[in-house]
Amino acid sequence: MSTFKEMNNAYAEFFGAEPPTRITVGGAKFPLGAAVENECIARVAN
């Protein structure tokens, strides 16, 4: 969570005024030394 502000700024810059929903989770340690973990929600047309 120490870099949340920077990530939030990059997210806003990339996605603009109507960004997709996201999930933010703080953790003490992610596997394999990762800095972030991503969750995805997709909508598929029938």
Please outline the helices and strands.
Layout: H1 4-15
Protein architecture, described:
- The protein has 46 residues and is an all-alpha fold.
- The protein has one domain (1-46).
- It has one helix and no strands.
- The protein is flat, with a radius of gyration of 13 Å.
- The mean pLDDT is 85.
DSSP strand tally: 0
Beta percentage is: under 5%
Largest sheet: none
Mean pLDDT: 85
The outline comes out as flat
How many helices? The count is: 1
What integer value in Å does the Rg equal? 13 Å
Task: State the low-pLDDT regions, or none.
Answer: none
As for the number of domains, it is 1
In sequence order, what are the helices and strands, one letter per element?
H
Structural class: mainly alpha
The helical percent reads 25-40%
N-to-C CA distance: 38 Å
What attributes characterize this protein structure?
0% strand; mainly alpha; 26% helix; 1 helix; 46 residues; flat
Short description:
The chain is mostly helical and 46 residues long. The protein has one helix spanning 4-15.
